[in-house]
Amino acid sequence: KNEVEQSPQNLTAQEGEFITINCSYSVGISALHWLQQHPGGGIVSLFMLSSGKKKHGRLIATINIQEKHSSLHITASHPRDSAVYICAVRSYSGGGADGLTFGKGTHLIIQP
Amino acid sequence: NAGVTQTPKFRVLKTGQSMTLLCAQDMNHEYMYWYRQDPGMGLRLIHYSVGEGTTAKGEVPDGYNVSRLKKQNFLLGLESAAPSQTSVYFCASSPSYPISYNEQFFGPGTRLTVL
Q1: Would you call the peptide bond into B8 cis, given omega within 30 degrees of 0 as the criterion?
Q2: Closest residue, chain A, to B55 (C-alpha)
Q3: pLDDT reported for residue B35
Q4: What is the mean predicted confidence (pLDDT) over B1-12?
Q5: Is the pLDDT at A107 greater than 70, yes or no?
Q6: B100 to chain A: which residues are within 8 Å by CB?
Q7: Across A14-28, average pLDDT
Q8: Cα–Cα distance, A8 to A106 (Å, whole number)
């Protein structure tokens, strides 16, 4: 079973700060997802990575397959970025269709 | 497109009662999933389906049953609800290709309380 660990669990920062959230996993994967869950509860997919780096607006996601590690960065953070950020992985052993393994999430609060 | 919808949004049950949660998607996705989310824990897979008429157990299937009679619908049933099933339930769907990526689209969630 693939274990997914996120750090930190909770993060409070000031508006404008550069934010980094980390994700480590234990076994080989075919893809890693970063998801965002807002206080209202809805979950949206931010990124899907199998290698390298992706950027969307102020969000950047990177993955190092050899080190089994991924990071999510937020530049020029804003209070509207306040949410729970969730890392999830698709294992090679998963057979391709049996869902994702999720981390517990990082609760981010950006103060004005 | 509505994406993934869930019915109901909220429900309170008494121990021993039964209910069915409905998930519907209009994206013609092959794969559908039911997850539960509990405080301090990551989402956990209850059951999943790789196509119409097929279902399979996930990580925490006990106490739940599912059916996928139509491609667009995935039903989650609780035959005899227990307080341990108090949770937020999320449905998700994904296309079958490319299988290695399996991007998932989530419904808004159903908050279930069992007294």
Answers
A1: yes
A2: A98
A3: 95
A4: 93
A5: yes
A6: 30-31, 50, 90, 96
A7: 95
A8: 6
Compute the nearest-CA separation of B42 from chain A (Å).
Answer: 4
**Residue B100 touches partner A, C-beta closer than 8 Å:** yes
Q: Is A58 helix (H, G, I), strand (E, B) or coil?
A: coil
Percent of chain B predicted with pLDDT > 90:
83
Chain A residue nearest residue B107, CA to CA? A42
Beta-sheet pairing, B44-51 with B73-78: unpaired
Write out pLDDT tens, residues A52-65: 999 999 999 999 99
Cα atoms in the 13 Å half-sphere on the side-chain side of A50: 12
Q: Please, what sign has the CA dihedral across residues B45, A43, A71, A14? A: negative
Closest by CA to A31, choosing from A88, A71, A72, A105, is A88
CB atoms B42 and A50 under 8 Å: no
A54 has which bridge partners?
Answer: A61
β strands within chain A, DSSP E: 4-7, 10-14, 19-25, 29-37, 43-49, 52-56, 59-64, 69-74, 83-91, 101-102, 106-111
Give the model's confidence band at A30: pLDDT under 50 very low, under 70 low, under 90 confident, else very high.
confident
Q: Please report residues of A whose CB lies closer than 8 A to that of B56.
A: 98
With an 8 Å Cβ cutoff, is B43 touching chain A? yes
